[in-house]
Amino acid sequence: MPAKPSIPAVSTRRASEGHLVVSVGYDNAMSLDIVGPLQVFATANDVRARQGLRTWYQTQLVARSAGAVTTSCGLKLLADHGWRNLELPANSTVLIPGGDGIDEVQHDEELRRWLRDIEPGVMRLGSVCSGALVLARAGLLDGHAATTHWCRIDELRAGHPDIAVDSDRLHTFEAGHAVYGHIFTSAGVTAGIDLALALVEADLGRATALAVARQLVMFMRRPGGQAQFSPLLTAETTHAPRLAMLLDWIPGQIGADLSVERLAEQACLPPRTLARVFHKELGTTPARYVERVRLEAASALLGQRQASVATVARLCGFGHPENLRRSFHKHLAVSPVAFAERFGSG
């Protein structure tokens, strides 16, 4: 049997000096799931070039065969190689993007077999958005934590009971972790950029990752444990008239008493009825919703670096700084002080 052709010699040589990042394209993939992360790695090269340092990342798009793939927005992207004929160096990252085409691609047994074959030999294998469904069907996420786009969470959870599905995080990558530093997933669309920035930080350090974020005009590099979307954005999707006015009222009262009893009084509903409406419309409890609104306000204040942790805790209704610290660790996996240092604009 003839040996499988490898990627061109120049590509292999460059990858051995740094890192090869491969995105697997297919028709009706989400274009941003592909180009968003790849642009992060390209911008990291630009940052290094301005510092007089050599190129670190080589990026490639592959598909079932070389040629054009048409993304869900109609943009055509040119795949350099077919993944079936690709030999990957050990210092490689392979990313599976999401998109409408995942409904068909996740059933591609040949692709799943290829992923299982390359997994032991590559440094990292991950997914963006609904690309997690391919890794799940390949059996590569069994026994591990995983996330995906919020609208695909139920599908992932129902079809793969052996996966610890976490709907409330941006990505599962953890640098240096024996499992999550090797196989990981990310939430929808722009969360792939957050994932890519985390990979850059693991490879080249925090300063380079933050320089890339600034170059891409991102507000900040969000930690992987952050929720997929703002509770305020969630509130705007509700169609419950009895909640709408209450949800508009809460952000202006975050430093005051927002107990369930106080919320029920404001909404003119019994506490138990209020709890049922919250669960039905928002999938959470009133107390948890209030905590997330307070956490978002605290994150914004700490990011501006214009108030101390104690002041932020008081203004946002946490009372004691220790309560704020516990909430940050629970939802963001970072302390308030570390959050301000890493992601603040000052």
UniProtKB/TrEMBL annotation:
SMART domains to which the protein is assigned, alphabetical: HTH_ARAC
Gene Ontology molecular function terms on file: DNA-binding transcription factor activity; sequence-specific DNA binding
Domain HTH araC/xylS-type: 244-342
UniProt KW Protein transport keyword: no
Pfam families listed in its UniProt record: DJ-1_PfpI (PF01965), HTH_18 (PF12833)
First and last residue of the signal peptide: none
KW Transcription (keyword) present: yes
Keywords: Transcription, Transcription regulation
Protein name (database record): GlxA family transcriptional regulator
The organism of origin for this protein: Diaphorobacter aerolatus
